[in-house]
Specification:
By secondary structure, the protein is mainly β. The protein has one domain (45-184): lipopolysaccharide transport protein A fold, CATH 2.60.450. The chain contains 1 helix and 9 strands, in the order H-E-E-E-E-E-E-E-E-E. The protein has one helix spanning 2-22; strands at 45-54, 60-72, 76-87, 93-103, 109-121, 128-139, 144-155, 158-168, 173-184. A 9-stranded antiparallel β-sheet has the order 1-2-3-4-5-6-7-8-9, with no helix packed on it. It is rod-shaped and about 125 Å long.
Length: 186
């Protein structure tokens, strides 16, 4: 009889042990984060991309080509190895290039930095010029090019250097702000 009781306890122990050890298996779950369509904009980035703003007439106000474009929602867009083109109010084409650039949202103001060159027809002149500096701001809505940095203005037979420049293209006005030096070759 003791043998039957021990056998019954052993069977009950095996059954209870089976349930206890193999009954509840915990699953490992990965946390998944989903974004609601109404959540904050995450922005975008692109390689070898072109950004074009068009005016009310459907024509481009400016065009920006860059190796890398990154949007920061509410903050603007940044560029790496950027090339820019825009037309002033008289239809003259201006081109610029720089290592980096930033476009402030809704303003049309493009800030270029790092080995900046801007080329175009100087206000009130028939000569093309190259503006070389480290930082420049281009306001494409008001047609104003400005820098507070040292700048070199090169045209045929002329080399002007200054600290700071304001080119108001609508008014055909170019101002070299301070420490102006230059050469003129007829």
């Amino acid at each position: 009889m003791i043998f039957r009781i021990l056998a019954a306890l052993l069977i009950i122990g095996i059954i209870v042990g089976s349930f206890w050890l193999g009954g509840e298996q915990r699953e490992t779950t990965a946390t998944t984060t989903t974004l609601d369509a109404g959540s904050a904009d995450l922005g975008y980035s692109a390689r070898n991309a072109t950004l074009v703003e068009t005016g009310a007439d459907g024509l481009p106000v400016y065009t920006l080509n860059a190796d890398v474009i990154r949007q920061h929602p509410g903050d603007g867009v940044e560029f790496e190895q950027v090339q820019m083109s825009f037309r002033d109010n008289e239809g003259q084409l201006w081109k610029g290039r720089a290592d980096r650039g930033e476009l402030t949202t809704e303003t049309g103001k493009v800030d270029l930095s790092g080995n900046v060159h801007v080329n175009g027809l100087l206000p009130g002149s028939s000569q093309m010029a190259d503006l070389a500096t480290e930082k420049v701001s281009v306001d494409t809505h008001d047609d104003i090019i400005t820098t507070a940095e040292p700048v070199t203005v090169t045209t045929t037979g002329r080399l002007l250097k200054s600290k700071g420049l304001v080119a108001t293209l609508k008014e055909h006005h170019l101002v070299l702000e301070s420490n102006v030096r230059g050469t003129f070759t007829p």
